[in-house]
Structures are given as structure tokens and as C-alpha cells.
Amino acid sequence: MFRSELKTNPPALISSTFLTRTLALLFGCGGPGLGAGEVPSLIVTLVSVTIEVLLVLPLDAMSTRGRPTVPLSAAQTLAMGELLRVAPAASALAGRFRQAGFKLALVGGSVRDALLGRLSADLDFTTDAKPEQTRAILAKWADAIWETGAAFGTIAAKKGRENPVTIEITTYRSEVYLDESRKPQVAFGESLEGDLHRRDFTINAMALELTTSEPTFIDPYGGLRDLTLKLLRTPAKPELSFSDDPLRMMRAARFAAQLDFIVDEAALDAIVSMKERIAIVSAERVRDEFVKLLMSNSPRLGLSILVESGLAEYVIPELPRLKLEIDEHHRHKDVYEHSLTVLEKAIALEERVGGPDLVLRLAALLHDIGKPKTRAFVPDGGVSFHHHEVVGAHLAKARLKALRFDKQTVDDVSSLVELHLRFHGYGAGEWSDSAVRRYVRDAGPLLERLHVLTRSDCTTRNQKKAKALADSYDDLEDRIARLGEEEELASMRPDLDGTSIMDILGIPPSRIVGQAYDYLLELRIENGPLGVERATEELKKWWAGRA
Known about the structure:
By secondary structure, the protein is an alpha+beta fold.
């Protein structure tokens, strides 16, 4: 699918606003007195000319010959302006490195994001100084220093208190995975160009040298052109790049999802042919890339690349297995496509849970992964997936554990997967109040996420059916809200606590106290609040019945 999109829908250029802003900075236009849409016609003309020039630039990845000076100068101005806006102390830091006889350059994603106008307060630099020399320079400048990455050539620091900036400075380096190793071997490099050549993609292989007489924009592999074309291309041959660090294959999918970029055809071919090599990367690193992809603005794009390239078979194999074969006699929804749609619908409702939410997105993506194992064809020509929510919860837990997710995330996602069908027994409101209480009790702190997941799981094209389901869930939420006001459902507990149970029954702390507590909680769910007097009476009856 992603290959056909590449051919039929060529990537959109970065908007003219981007180039207009860049050129306005270069030529001193667009000041405080210039409102939106009032950019001089000269600048608009230059934008158009620049777009045309960029489109005919050569694709020679090892050369910048023939590149126009206007876009590069504009890029340099924009990147430096963004850097000084976020970290005005960067000039002073560069001065310290220059005085010590070393070079310092803003590099990688920081340059990319500066050109996109989205630079954060987490900055990446590279230098020819060795880690111990970097630390000595930072000791006189930074407010705090971390050396946890020193073995890989990286020293981190923080500067500022009100608007702190976190920086990582890494010695020029190259890193390569051995055939069976799960950890890269790191060697320090000799030049900035060599350091850029080892990076994952050309858009991350640009630098802003800060220790020259004037800041110098360095782009030996055509990153600016690819940024303009919204294209992910490797500085070296993709086979070499992905062999050096197989995780870059996942990064291609992740950056495509984050930036809405297209992956270069040669890189896609390399991913398809080398996908098995991802197996040598540690589960923790794979997990981190997968999370970044899933938490992007367009996870469908990245997930599609993982699945269509075959990479998902080694990362999250349950996902491609959702592409169930549709028999001509047993037609049913494509569960894979349905799952992506549910994910998108859940993302659209995330404001209900306070914004982007990893647990919700994982549950939306994985909620039906039990279907392939439970699929059965029934005599009337239909398809059933009995208990797929239970099977899916076990599969979700196993996969997330394999990816080294933390226990809370594993438990929360598997619980949501197991609960996602519970609402379908609600019908037109037939549940008793006790059933509503159990729904709330079983969901616990996941209730709002369960609301979003359940609503998102309705992807039917039948508008009448979709409205009926939405109305039913509106009714359920109204009942939960009403009972919540009357009974404090969010903190549902028995009318007697453990201490009271021990006092009434005259027993010490033991397993029996917990059993009594659970019995009273069941009564509370079934009947609503009992009050202390009735709860005491019921407790005594329960105790007498055990004698």
C-alpha cells in the first residue's frame, strides 16, 4: 500500500509559509510591523523560484555541488534563530569549546526541528572533543552534568532554572552492530562529515557549526532538499545503514508517522530484504521506537510500513495476523483495517483522558488480537470469535511483556482488551443498577479509557446501527454519572472497613477479614449503600453461616 501511495501521491512540499519565513529572515522582512499575509511580493516570488530550484537539484548524496546559496543561507539563518530563541546560552557554550581548541555543532534532529520551526529545549550537539574533555568544559558552564552515556561518547547537561535547556554533546563517532550482537560497538570518528555519514537519514545528517567565525550550515548529503520534499533517505546505501544499526528500519516507520514523510523506495526495498536483522536489537530499544511511532500524530502510516514491509512479523506479529483472509462465502470485516480505524477514533477522543495516552492507544490497536485464534465459521455462513476478548487479553499481556513494557502498562492494556466487549450486553439499557456498579468496579481507574475504547470500537457504516450504539452508551454513561452522584461509585467500598469487621467479629487480622470485606463489597454492588447498621447485621449473618 505504501509503495502505491508513493507512486500515485508524490510527497507534498514543505509549505510556502516555511520558505517565506526563511527568506523573510534572510532578507530582514516580516518584522513586527508586518502582519500575516503582508510578506513583500519579492519574497513570494523568491519562494516560488526556490521551490522550482529545489525540485531540480541533483540527488547526488555525496555532493552539494549545484545547490543554490539562497536556500542554504536561509536555512542557516532560520536554524540559528531557532537555536538562539530556545537556548541563548548556546553561543557562550560554543565560545568555550572554541577557546579550548575544539569544534561544536548543533546536529541531527535538533537541526531538522530548527528548520521546521519546532525546536525543543532538548538539544543535540557533536564535537571533536573526547568525553572527558567535554565534561571539563561543561563543568564551568552547566548547572548539572550526567555521565551515564560517557561510554558511548555522550555527556549530558542542564543549563538554566526558569527555562532550563537539556543538552547532549557526543564525540564524533561511528557505531556498528556485529552479526549476532544486541549492542552496538562504538568507535570515535575523526570528522563532522564522517559523523553525519553514519546517521540514519539525510534529514538528520545536517549540522550547524557554531565554532567557526560565523555559524556554518553543513549539509553534505542533501538533507535540506529531502526535508523540503518530505522524503526519508539514508546518507549511505540503505543496506549499509540498516546493517550498521537495524533499529533504523523502525525509525523509518517512526519518522514517517511523526513527520508525515515518505520513505525512499531504495530504503523500503532494503527494509523488506533485511527485516530479520531487527531480531538482534534489544527488546527495550524496539519498544521505545514502537512507542514513539504509536504516539505520533499519524501512527497508521508508520504501522502500515511495519506491516507491509514484513518488519512487524519480528516486532509485533499479532498485528499482521489481523489481516484475516476473507472467504467468498464467509464475508466479514478486515480486522486489521478495523483495528487501525479504532486507533484513529480513539486518538480523536483522547481529550477525554487528558491528551495523548499510551495505554489507550495500545488497547485500541490490540483490542481484537484474539480474533485470529478464535475465528470459527458457523453454519449460517457467518463468522464467530467467541471469547476473543479473553484470548486477546492473554496475547496482549504476553506481547507487551516480551517488549519489556512496565507491569502497570501491561496490566492496564490487557484489562481494557478483556473489558472492551462488556458493554455489548447492555442492549437498550437492560442492565440493573448492580450491573452498572460492577462495570464501574471492574474498570476501576481505567473507566474513562474504557468509555473511549468502547465508543471507538463502533466502526459500522450502518448509520442507524451506529447511532443506536452511541445512544445506548450515552445512556450508560448517564446512569454511571447519576449513580456516582448518589453513591460515590468512584470510591466504591463496603460500609464497614477491615478494622470494624475485626471488632464486630472479635477476630485478629487474617484471611477471613478479607473474605468478609469481599462479601460486604458484593452486597454493596448488588444493593447500593447499606448503612453501618444493616451492614453489621449482614456481616453477623454471614459469620453465623460459616459456623
